[in-house]
Fold:
Amino acid sequence: MVDVTVTTASIPERAKLLWEAMASVRAQTVQPAAHLIRVQSPDDPISPVQLAHQRNRLLAAVDTIWAATLDDDDVYLPKHFETIAEALDTDADVVYTFAREGN
Structure:
């Protein structure tokens, strides 16, 4: 386990995508400490401002040293946190891996 909390904001219409994102976190070879998820209420208007508000609330709830964001339409490759775990013990302010587009 690494001292990272993953945050994911979503909307009800993207439930299938959210499940895939959640499955990619569960499939990690090295698990994050937590995965916080916030699904917007169906009654709230969908807007970039509302999504930013959701993300800010999620980040405010993080109690680990590191936070990682995962959009509901993205997935982590299985060794994502294993790959970055080594860098987390350095003096780095930001740690990231490269993204791969497509299947």
The mean pLDDT is 90. The chain has three helices and three strands. The two ends are 27 Å apart (CA to CA).
